[in-house]
Structure formats: C-alpha cells, structure tokens
Specification:
It is a single chain. It contains 14 helices and ten strands. It has 392 residues and is an alpha/beta fold. The radius of gyration is 28 Å and the shape is globular.
C-alpha cells in the first residue's frame, strides 16, 4: 500500500514537472539557450508561433531556432496572425497584443485597408489609432472604420450610460433643496443637523422645526456642463471616453452640455453630440496645445456661472500663455464655476503631465488627477452638488 501511494505521488510530481516545463518553454520561446527540451504541438505550437511573430527576436523577423513567425509588412500575414491570436487568446489579451503590434511593428498603415479592419478586435486604443489616421484614410476604408468605431462606442454607452444618468439625476435632485418636502423627499441627514438645537435629552430625540428636502429635477435645465478636451495625440483614449460621456450628458434634459476640443485651434462639436461617432471623426488627434485659448472660448459661453461645471481634460502641457490660463481658471472659480481638471479619462492612469501646471491649478482649488471611466459619474455628481471631489 505504501509503495502504491508513493508511486501515485511520483506520478503526480512527474505530471506537475512536465506542466511546469511546458509553461517555461512557452515563456522562453525556444532557441538554443532555452534548455527545457520540450517540443510543442497542436494548440501550443500555434500559440507559440503567434507570440513569436510579435515578441520574437529582431522585431518578429524569423531566425533559425528563435521564436518568430514573421509578420513583416504584409497584410495577408497580419490578417492571418490576427485570426490566430483571436483563436488562442481571450479578447482582453488580444487587445494588448494588437496594441503592441501597432507600436512594435509599425502596422498602423495596414489599418487603412478594409480587410484588416474587419479582422481586428475593436477597442478604445484601436479607435484612437484610427482617429489619428483619419485624414490619411481612403474613402474605401472610411465606412469600415466608422463601423469599428461605432461598435466600440455602443459598447461603452451600454456599459456607462445608465449608471451615469442615474448618478447624475440623483445629484441634481439633491442639489435642488426645498423647505417643505413630501415625506419621501426629506433629507434626514441635513434635517437633523439643522435642528440639533431642538434636541430633547429627556426624550433622546430631535424635534424638527424645519425640514430640509430634496427637490426633484424637472425638465428645465438645472446645470450646465462644458467638456473641454485636449486632442493631442497622447490623449486619444480620453477623447474617446469624453465623447461618449458627452453624448450621455447631452441626452439628459436637466443638463445643458457643451463639448469643445482643442489643440492650437478650438472646435466646438456641441451640435454633433447626438452621435459620438460624428464627434470622434470631428477631432484631429495630434498637433500642439493652447489651453488658454480653449478656456477663453469656454469662458465666453458661460451664462450661469453658479450652475456651471467646466471639465478640462488635458495633460496640461501648455503651448499658450501659462499665466493667462491660470487667471482664467481663477476668474471662473471666483464667479462660482465648479472647475474640474482631469489629466486623463481612461483606464491607464495618469500619463506624463506638466506637474508645475497641475500644482498651480491645485493651489487655485482645482486639483488635477487622472480619472477612470467608472469613477467619472461620481466626480461629476460631486461637482454638480458642489461637494469635495472623490480624488483617487
């Protein structure tokens, strides 16, 4: 019995050892110095070839004994590779590999071909790449590109839209305080604080002489929101998310939304907010940055400062007049505008940004921070209610 048990343990250890060697072989990618002695077959061999085409030595060009399948600049090869990676890896990994292929192997130009676009896995970063190629895109590709962009936008709207509307409608209701609320609309926290002087120790209770309640946001415009978006190349993902959120905000009757994009020029895309795809194709990623000029335009459109939220989405690398930019922010805040500075609106965290400008804005009461799309509704709700922002 002991011998049989020991044999089972050895067999198990052997199986575990073989699996570890197989995984090390996949990680190391073969070659003379690899040392595992494991030969791959079937799906493992296909997965290894797909990885080698992208991450092999010499940027994917094939050498004897090295991991590589070779993509070169050939559209057929890339199309086959895209099909392989979608076969062997989950969508989240496919998106990372596509992004690496575009950056490492210079495949952006191939995305101008309709056949290539139909093969890729759409995601926010691919949309950013397509927008950067917008002006160079041939007409035969443009409709395919719009279909890719629309698929990503619709998925984002589905994921973010309902929660954003619910969060902001709640914030609008809470921001409209009334003094004679219905029972269901009483804000008990504020009511208790307003009546603490009426506390009766013998009964251990507060007698509320004055009720504080939530107003209900009606159809009239309660707040105005200005999204001011830096469209320099580094802000591609932020432009995509901001355009989607802009369309969601524009669909809410209680919020008047304006969307402005800028580099060294300023473009007002508010009239296109009913279709975020049109907004995105109205942008032009790349170029310089003139934040002061963009804020001057936004400031000129503010008619109700106390009811306005301005959201600047930028890495703050200012090519315009720095002191004037800061004066404009200070003037808007002094007039009652809620000013929010987002270094990025994406899942990647804070990019490289101008720390001096960020510190100067923080000193004015407009802290600059990166914001994920999931946090954005909470940030906007806090701004609408004029309470401290949930800075990560």
């Amino acid at each position: 019995m002991a011998s049989r048990a020991g044999g089972k343990q050895m067999a198990g250890a052997g199986a575990d050892g073989a699996e570890r060697l197989r995984r090390w072989r996949m990680v190391l990618g073969g070659g003379e110095g690899e040392g595992t002695g494991v030969a791959l077959s079937g799906a493992d061999a296909g997965m290894d070839a797909a990885l080698g085409a992208l991450y092999g030595a010499d940027g994917g060009s094939k050498r004897a004994g090295e991991r590589s399948a070779g993509l070169g600049g050939s559209a057929p090869n890339v199309a086959r590779w895209l099909g392989d990676v979608r076969t062997y890896f989950p969508a989240s990994v496919v998106q990372v590999m596509q992004r690496d292929a575009i950056q490492r192997l210079g495949l952006a130009a191939l995305l101008l071909e309709p056949e290539m676009l139909e093969a890729v896995e759409p995601d926010v970063h691919l949309v950013g790449t397509l927008l950067s190629l917008n002006k160079a895109m041939p007409e035969t590709t443009r409709e395919t590109a719009r279909a890719v962009v629309r698929k990503v936008v619709e998925e984002l709207e589905k994921r973010l839209g309902s929660r954003t509307r619910a969060t902001l409608n709640g914030a609008l209701d809470r921001s409209a305080r009334i003094s004679r609320p219905r029972h269901a609309d009483i804000d008990w926290d504020r009511t208790i604080r307003a009546n603490l002087k009426n506390y009766l120790p013998e009964y251990r209770t507060v007698v509320p002489e004055r009720l504080v309640g939530y107003g209900r946001a009606g159809r009239a415009v309660k707040k105005e929101v200005v999204l001011c978006i830096d469209q320099s190349g580094s802000m591609a993902a932020s432009v995509v998310y901001a355009s989607v959120f802009g369309a969601v905000l524009a669909s809410m009757r209680s919020i008047a939304t304006r969307l402005v994009v800028f580099d060294t020029a300023v473009v007002d895309l508010t009239d296109q907010l009913d279709d975020p795809v049109d907004v995105l194709f109205g942008t032009q990623l790349g170029g310089g940055t003139d934040i002061n000029r963009a804020l001057a335009y936004c400031q000129s459109k503010i008619t109700r400062p106390a009811d306005t939220v301005v959201v600047l989405i930028s890495d703050l690398y200012e090519g315009g007049i720095r002191d004037e930019m800061l004066k404009r922010v200070a003037a808007m805040k002094a007039a009652g505008v809620e000013f929010v500075t987002l270094l990025a609106l994406s899942d990647e965290g804070a990019p490289a940004y101008d720390r001096d400008h960020a510190a100067a804005l923080a000193a004015l009461g407009a802290p600059a921070f990166a914001c994920t799309p999931d946090l954005f509704p909470e940030v906007m709700a806090a701004a609408l209610e004029k309470r401290p922002l949930p800075v990560p």
